[in-house]
Write a structure and sequence with these properties.
By secondary structure, the protein is mainly alpha-helical. It has a domain of 162 residues: MetI-like fold, CATH 1.10.3720.10. The protein is built from nine helices and no strands. The protein starts with 20 loop residues before the first helix and ends in a 13-residue tail after the last helix. Keywords: Amino-acid transport, Cell membrane, Membrane, Transmembrane, Transmembrane helix, Transport. It is a multi-pass membrane protein.
Length: 249
C-alpha cells in the first residue's frame, strides 16, 4: 500500500493565518461540547417532567407523556434534526422568524441541533425516570401521603431522590450517547468534531491518522464522563440500598 504516514499532521499549518490543524480539531470539539451539553440540559428537564407525568394518577398526563415518547423515540434522530433546522423555522411567527434568519448559519444550526437532540434524548430519559419511580415500593408514596405531603412534595422529597439513585447507571450510558449523537449535527451544518475531522482529512489525505486522533479524543472524553458518573453514583449510594453489594450493616 502506497500511503504516506504522517502522525504529525495535526501540527501542520492549515494555510489560514497561523492556525494549525489541531486548532480546527479543538474548535470542533468545542462545538461538540456546546451541542451535547445544551442537549443534555434540555433532555434532563423535559425527561424528568415527562417521566413524572407517566407515573401520575392522571390518565391525561400519562397519555401526553406516552405520546411524546412514542413520537420522539421512534422517529430517526436525523429526520428530527432536519425538521428542526429546515421546517420549524418557517413555521415561526413573523417577528421570531425574522430574528432567527438574521442569525449566522452556524448559530441556527447549533440551536436546531441542540433542541432536536435534546428532545430526542428526553424521550429515553422519560422512560428511565418512569422505570426508576415504578421500581420503588408503593409504600414509599403512601408513607409520604400519610405524613401529609402533597403529590408534588411526595415526588420531591420521597420518590425522586430514591429513583435518581436507581437510574444513575443507565443515565451514564445515556450521557455518553448524547455526546456521541451530537456528531449527527454535522449533517445540518454544525462545524463540530466530525465535521472538522472530515475537512482535515480531505485537506491532508492523512485519513488514518486524523480519524485515529478523533477516535482517541472521543474515547478519552467519554471515559471521563463515565468515571464522573460512577463517582457520583458512589457518592450518592446509600449503603445496603440499591447497591447490589450486600445488606445494610
Amino acid at each position: 500500500m502506497n500511503y504516506n504516514w504522517n502522525w504529525g499532521v495535526l501540527w501542520q499549518s492549515t494555510g489560514v493565518g497561523s492556525e494549525l490543524y489541531w486548532h480546527w480539531l479543538l474548535k470542533g470539539f468545542g462545538w461538540l461540547l456546546v451541542v451535547g451539553g445544551s442537549a443534555w440540559v434540555i433532555a434532563l428537564v423535559v425527561g424528568f417532567v415527562l417521566g413524572v407525568m407517566r407515573t401520575l394518577p392522571s390518565k391525561l398526563a400519562q397519555n401526553i407523556a406516552a405520546t411524546y415518547v412514542n413520537i420522539f423515540r421512534n422517529a430517526p434522530l436525523l429526520i428530527q434534526l432536519f425538521i428542526w433546522f429546515y421546517v420549524v423555522p418557517t413555521l415561526l411567527p413573523d417577528g421570531v422568524r425574522a430574528w432567527w434568519f438574521s442569525l449566522s448559519f452556524n448559530t441556527t444550526a447549533v440551536m436546531s441541533a441542540s433542541i432536536g437532540l435534546g428532545l430526542f434524548t428526553a424521550a429515553r430519559i422519560t422512560e428511565q425516570v418512569r422505570t426508576g419511580i415504578e421500581s420503588l415500593p408503593k409504600g414509599q408514596a403512601n408513607a409520604g401521603f400519610a405524613l401529609g405531603f402533597t403529590t408534588a412534595q411526595t415526588y420531591r422529597y420521597v420518590l425522586l431522590p430514591q429513583a435518581f439513585r436507581v437510574i444513575l447507571p443507565p443515565m451514564s450510558s445515556e450521557l455518553t450517547n448524547c455526546f456521541k449523537n451530537a456528531s449527527v449535527a454535522s449533517l445540518v451544518g454544525v462545524a463540530e468534531l466530525i465535521s472538522q475531522t472530515k475537512t482535515i482529512s480531505e485537506y491532508t489525505q492523512n485519513n488514518f491518522e486524523v480519524y485515529t486522533f478523533t477516535t482517541v479524543l472521543y474515547l478519552v472524553f467519554n471515559l471521563a464522563l463515565i468515571l464522573g458518573m460512577t463517582a457520583l453514583e458512589k457518592k450518592l449510594r446509600i449503603k445496603g440500598q440499591i447497591s447490589g453489594q450486600g445488606g445494610a450493616t
